[in-house]
Amino acid sequence: MELTAFWRFFYGSYKLTDEYIGNGIQTGLFLTEVDLISLIGYKRPGDQRRWLDRHGWAFEVRADGKNIVLTEEARGRMLTGKSTHRATEPNLDALRALV
Can you tell me the distance from the alpha carbon of 83 to that of 99, in angstroms, rounded to the nearest whole number? Predict the structure, then answer.
């Protein structure tokens, strides 16, 4: 597939294939870089992190500084508006209520 000059500029070095056009979120464990750009609207990882933090999405940062988001997180957010992220610390208020 040949990309126009505009799309080459817009997506930079990213290679688009038919699997990324019009099919929505992919089925892998993590969203692809193209999925993140499409979802968030930012290409730079720092801008993506700010958006993800501001909107309460669960994500991790890879060693190379790029962000990873579970496909399950994205689907849960888009379908229910709720994160699939579970707290890693105990709910102390629930424990206090038992005493």
Answer: 30
pLDDT band at 13 (very low <50, low <70, confident <90, very high): very low
Q: Is residue 14 pLDDT above 80, yes or no?
A: no
Contact 85, 52 (CB under 8 A): no
| Domains in the chain: boundaries | 25-84
Residues in the chain: 99
Q: Which two tokens stand for residue 54?
A: 């501001």
Contact 36, 48 (CB under 8 A): yes
Cα(76)–Cα(73) distance, integer angstroms: 5
Residue 30 has pLDDT above 70, yes or no: yes
- Output the six-digit token pair for 33: 């870089």
Q: Which helix (H) or strand (E) holds 60?
A: strand 60-61
CA distance 55 to 64: 23
